[in-house]
Every structure is written in C-alpha cells, then in structure tokens.
Design goal:
The structure holds three protein chains of three kinds. By secondary structure, chain A is of the alpha/beta class. Helix content of chain A is 36%, strand content 24%. In chain A, the strands form two sheets. In chain A, strands 6-7-8-3-9-10 form a six-stranded mixed beta sheet, with helices on both faces. A four-stranded antiparallel beta sheet of chain A has the order 2-1-4-5, with helices on one face. By secondary structure, chain B is mostly helical. In chain B, helix 4 packs antiparallel against helix 5. Classes of the chains: A alpha/beta, B mainly alpha, C alpha/beta. The interface between A and C is medium-sized, with 29 and 25 residues.
C-alpha cells in the first residue's frame, strides 16, 4: 500500500477541523477530495506533506511512518511526495527563466545524490512547446502555463504521490480541463498516485479513480468515483449531486 | 531606469537630484576645494570675496574649502554607517528567519536589549569613551543602529518565507543560498529603503555628537564646522554667522530633508 | 444603461479590441472569455478607480454619461465586486461592522431584519454576524460580499468571477440568489464557467 493515513485529528484552538481521518491509497490510483471550502481538505493535504502537524494520527509512505514535520523527513521521503500549489503565480519565482526554475530542483537533488528526470523529458510531458521556451522568464507565462510548469517541476524527482491542492481554482475553464487531463496522463505514464483537492468536480467528465468526501470534520463517503452518483449516502454528498444536476444535468 | 525616474513624484525627483549633486561634490571635493582644508595660512576673519567665497574663520581656514571637505566627510560617514547597519541588520534577520528556533531567539533577545535604550545616548557614551577617531564613531553608530533594522527586516523576511515559492524550495531541502536566491527580488528593495533611512540617522547622530564636541576633531564634518562656528564668540558681529554658520547648517538640512523625502512613502501625490 | 462602441484598451503594452456592447436596463448579462482576453481590463476601465491603461473609443457611456466624466460618485448606483473580493475583508472588524460601514457609506440605515433575511436567502447562518473574517470560509466570504453589494440597492451590479473558489452547492446558492434579482437591476457577471452563465444570464457576450 503506497499511502496509509490513519486517524488524523486536528484542531485550531477550540475549532475542530479534522476528526479521525483514515484512508488508503494504492500506487497509480487517483483520489479526489471533496468538501466545502474550509472543510479541512487543504489542512489534510498539508499534514500529509508535513507543512502542518496533526494533533494525533499517522501517515505511512510504503509502510514507513513519516515525521509530522517536513524538516525532519529524509530527502527521499520529501522527494517522493510532490505538492502542487493552488496559486501558480506565487509558486514560481517570476524572475527566473523556465530552465533556471527546473535546474534549481536538479541541482538540489544532485547535491543529495538523488536521481532526477531530464528537464526535457519533464517539459515534453506537460507541453512540447516549452522545449523551445526554456530561456523565457516565468513572468511571461500565463497562469495555466505556470501550473503546467509546476507539474513538470514536480515530475523531476520521479514522485510516487502528487498532491494537487486546488490546482485549477485560479485558472479558467479550458485550462482546468487541460490540467486535469494532464494529471491523469502522468498518472498512467509514471504509475504515480494523485490526491486532488477540487472544489468544482465534474462528475460526468472527470477521470478520478476514487472520491473521498469530507464534511463536519469526518470522511462521510469514500468510494469509487464512478459509483458516486448512484451510491453516495451522506446528506452532503446528496446535496452535492443535486447541485451538480442543477448545472450539468 | 529613466522611465521609472520620470514616474516619481516631484519631491522625490528633487531629492534624488539634490543627493546626486551632493554625492558628486563629495567625490570631486579635492578638485572643488580652492585650498586645503588644513591650510591655516590665510588672514583671519575675512569677509566673503572672490578669493574666499565664504570668507575665513578665526584660525585662518578658508570656510568654503572646509564646507566642501565637509561634503566628503559627512556623506562618507553617512554612507558607510548606513551601509553596514543595513547589511548587518538584514543579514542577521535572514539568518534568524532561515534557521529559526534557538538561533532566532538568541539574536532577537540581543536585539531587544538595544531597543530599550535610546541609541543616541549609547552612541554618545561610547564615542566619548573611545579614542576620538572617525572609525570609532562609525562603529558606535552601526553597533547601536542594527537592532532596529533587524527587527523590521526579520518581520518582513519571515513573511516572505511564507510564500509558496519558498515553501517549495524548503520542501526539497534547499539550503539557505537556494532560498536567498528566491528572496533577493524582495529583500533588495527592502535593503535600499533601510539604507536611505540609516544614512539619514547616521548623519543626524554624527551631527549631534559633533555638537557635543565628541568625535574626531581632524575629520571636520558639517557638524564640526557648526560647532566651531558656535564656539566663536563674535559670531553674530558683522554678520559673520551668515557665511560661517549658515552654509553648513543649510547643507545639513538639505541633505537630511532629501534623504527623508526619498525614504517616505508616496503619500503626497 | 451601458454602451460601448469601437473600444480599444491599451494596457501593459497589449492592445485589446472589444466588440460593441449594448446593455439595457435591468438586463442580466454574462461575460465569458479565456484568461488574458481582457475581461478584467474592461471591467476595471468601466467601473474601477484609476485605471492605468489608455482608452480609445467612439462611444463609451454608463447611464448616458461618458466614462471619462465619471468619478467616484458613480458608486452611488454601481456595486462593483472585483475578482478575489473575498480577500478584501478588514481582519480587525466583525461581519456586522462591515455591513454597518457599507450602509453608512451609502447613507442607508442598518435594518437587522433585512440583513438576516438576505443572509438566509444566501444560506448563511445569522450567527456569522458576530464572526471575524478569519473565522469564515471562502464560500461564506464570497456570499457576504454579494450580500453587501446588494444591500446598498445599486442600479448596476458588476461581478468579476464571483464563483472562482467556491463549491457547487454554494455556487447554486449564489445562482438562485442572483436569479431572484433578475429584472430588478442590471447585472453584469464575468465567469469562466459557461454552465453558470447559461443558467443565470439573459444573454452571454463572448470576448
């Protein structure tokens, strides 16, 4: 089992965000996390990557318990989980060129004697057009393009898990479809797992394997994505399905 | 760069022009001084004339030469003090922000010690104890000014380190240099603001020290010139003060005001 | 209400040419387009303060007044919510204070019944009135922005991507809320989800 999340509980002061969250994720499987904004999805993602610490609970990567604080994790643990931020404008340094952005990762990996993908291979995977644009500054790229660059950067370390935290929220509709299909493509090509936090799920067209719905601090539904419409049981899930039908039919 | 100059407010444009002129005078002071600042061979207490544009003082110096020399020394003191205060304050702030925990705590506690005491008192105290050389004055100013820069820089840098691009670098175990490369576009403007502010303060500290007779008597800053003028008992006879006292005062005021306007926010426009 | 003919906006070294736009009173118009096509520039030029770009046009009026002659008094009858308005909350004051200040700035009285009624229609619990902004979720903030925009009884409501970061349930809420205002005031909404605009607008202009 690639990822095991066990009994994660987290509160901010008296305000409880997550209670007893547990789920598994296999290699090459994609999981979409659904729930209201503020429901703790991002907090859960940050706990898995180690940017935040939970009050109790554990995260296991290939049966190895991960330290709650990313600073105390080994380089290998950090390299195997990559995080795609919501805002592509703040995730990259605008003054760097495309090449320099990716070289940063390569240099640090070399320093830690960690094998990386070739820059060209990562760029070709996300957008062949980038191969001729390596000398362009990041500030000249659009939001959708920057997000693709973030994905290319994430691929460099041959990760086993990519967490995409609202990766498409700040992009327009066409970019959203492009990014989601790109994530599906790399999932299949590299057999990596994906946890995607998405607030506007398209139940007709999205291609996730499984879905977990978080409401009132708990996971209320966890099942195959294609079964959701038929078998979702929680009240929140049903309301979500109704709203979806309202817009998409 | 010319375009961004054009976009500045009128006061900032004027300030920059004044400061550039002052800097040029300071750099070319050797050529602008008609006589050496140490030359006391002239007749004493002469009124302004073609030979002595600002007359001479009671010892025999040409006041105009003294004033030009004052440009060099005062501005030099300001720039050196401002530069090192900014460098030390910002560097320590980055180190504290990057390493966090105990490192940050130790440096912050040291900085806090300095915050309580007004720097001018400390600077005067230590300067009067030390041998009267300019380098010690500068060291005193830097030593007691860096904590203020440190505190603000620390706050700002800690904010910058919360940015996603920095988080990425930290998540792949980037070292302090990797993170610094990403923060440089944000830190450099910060440092230039501090630099202007600290130059301003350094000038004012040095002038205050000179007013109290503390500091290197051989390095005659405008402050020293003002002190010398005020020490001359017959300053207000025959309007001597007009060419002895007023010029260095004007230069000082103009310098300080230009620096102040340069470092202020664009409120007026 | 709004007439735009042969408008060209030059901003950040880019020139964008717009189609002619005529919006009648009390119409609900959706604006749709890819990112970078100039939707936000158009809104900023028409409804914002201190737009930095250059405008060239044959005609460009709001309520028959040329936009170059409009100043901040246009906000007497326009509610303009730029993108990411939900980040504009003052972290030091409560929700009630925000509403009070909005009403005070527009010379209107604070009517607690009206406010709670609107909150209910938006699916917001009235105890949120005592909350501070950091305690609110993104969806709640977005709906409160809409509430305050509507509360000042504008003749024209302009929304730039009000739906960008909220879930489908909240979005439906907002759509039903806006639909209830159809025909009562002019509404312009920019969105990048066509389904949303199709659901709610009288017509859609594609940029």
């Amino acid at each position: 089992m690639m990822l095991k999340v066990r009994n994660i509980t987290k509160s901010y002061g008296k305000h409880k965000i997550l209670e007893d969250i547990s789920f598994d994720l296999k290699t090459g499987e994609s999981l979409v996390l659904a729930g209201r904004s503020g429901s703790g999805k991002t907090t859960l993602a940050k706990i898995i990557i180690g940017l935040e610490q939970c009050d109790s609970g554990e995260v296991y990567l290939f049966d190895k318990k991960l330290n709650g604080n990313y600073r105390k994790r080994t380089f290998s643990d950090l390299a195997r989980i990559q995080y795609i931020f919501q805002d592509p404008y703040s995730a990259l340094e605008p003054n760097f060129t495309l090449e320099k952005t990716l070289m940063e990762t390569i240099k640090i990996c070399k320093r830690n004697k960690y094998k990386t993908m070739e820059i060209d291979e990562a760029l070709a995977m996300v957008d062949r057009g980038f191969l001729e644009q390596k000398k362009r500054k990041i500030s000249t790229f659009s939001g959708g393009q920057r997000q693709k660059i973030c994905i290319a950067r994430a691929l460099l370390t041959y990760p086993k898990l990519i967490i995409a935290d609202e990766a498409t929220s700040m992009l327009d509709f066409d970019n959203r479809i492009e990014i989601n299909s790109l994530l599906d493509k790399i999932k299949r090509e590299f057999e990596l797992s994906i946890i995607a936090i998405v607030h506007d799920i398209d139940f007709h067209n999205d291609k996730w394997d499984r879905i977990a719905v978080i409401n009132n601090c708990k996971i209320v539904d966890l099942m195959k994505f294609k079964d959701f419409f038929q078998h979702a049981s929680s009240d929140y899930s049903k309301e979500l399905i109704n709203s979806h039908k309202y817009f998409y039919g | 760069m010319l375009n961004s100059f054009k976009q500045l407010s009128k006061t900032k444009k004027a300030s920059i022009i004044i400061l550039v002129v002052f800097l040029l005078v300071a750099i070319f002071s050797k050529f602008l001084m008609p006589y050496s600042h140490e030359d006391i061979s002239h007749s004493r207490l002469l009124e302004p004339s073609k030979k002595h544009l600002l007359g001479t003082d009671e010892i025999g110096h040409d006041i105009f030469s003294l004033l030009i020399y004052g440009f060099r020394i005062t501005i030099f003191t300001a720039i050196i003090s401002g530069f090192f205060t900014t460098l030390i304050g910002t560097s320590l702030a980055y180190i504290a922000a990057y390493y966090g925990r105990s490192v940050k705590m130790i440096i912050s506690e040291i900085a806090n010690l300095f915050v309580v005491v007004p720097e001018i008192v400390m600077i005067m105290f230590f300067s009067s104890l030390a041998r009267p050389k300019l380098i010690y004055t500068i060291m005193a100013i830097v030593f007691f000014s860096w904590p203020k820069v440190y505190k603000i820089a620390l706050f700002k840098i800690m904010n910058y380190m919360e940015k996603n691009k920095v988080k990425y670098t930290l998540l792949i175990k980037g070292n302090w240099f990797d993170v610094l490369k990403k923060l440089l576009p944000d830190i450099l403007p910060l440092m230039s603001t501090f630099f202007v502010l600290q130059c301003n303060r350094a000038v004012m500290y040095e002038s205050s020290l000179s007013f109290f007779g503390i500091g290197d008597p051989l390095k005659k800053t405008w402050g020293k010139l003002i002190r010398a003028a005020l020490d001359y008992e017959d300053l207000y006879y025959d309007n001597t003060f007009l060419w002895y006292l007023i010029p260095p005062v004007l230069c000082l005021i103009l310098f300080v005001i230009s620096l102040t306007f340069l470092s202020s926010e664009n409120g007026e426009d | 209400m709004i007439t735009v003919e042969n408008l060209k906006i030059i901003y950040n070294k880019k020139t964008i040419i717009y189609p002619n736009i005529h919006i009648k009173n009390n119409e609900f118009v959706g604006l749709y387009g890819k990112s970078g096509c100039g939707k936000t520039s158009l809104l900023e030029a028409l409804f914002g303060l201190d737009f930095q770009g250059d405008l060239e046009y044959d005609k460009c009026t709001i309520n028959d007044v040329d936009i170059k002659e409009l100043d901040s008094r246009k906000y007497d009858y326009i509610s303009y919510c730029p993108q990411f308005s939900q980040n504009a909350f003052n972290p030091k004051i409560s929700v009630t204070e925000h509403i009070r200040l909005t009403l005070k700035g527009n010379g209107l009285k604070y009517n607690i019944d009206e406010v709670t009624a609107l909150m209910e229609r938006l699916g917001l619990n009235s105890n949120l009135l005592n909350y501070f902004p950091h305690m609110l979720s993104g969806g709640q903030k977005q709906r409160l922005i809409l509430l305050m925009a509507v509360l000042k009884r504008p003749k024209l409501l302009v929304l730039d991507e009000p739906s960008s970061a909220i879930d489908l349930i909240t979005l439906r809420n907002m759509v039903e809320f806006l639909t209830s205002f159809k025909g009562k005031l002019t509404i312009i909404m920019v969105a990048h989800q066509k389904v949303l605009l199709e659901k709610v607008a009288d017509r859609i202009i594609i940029l």
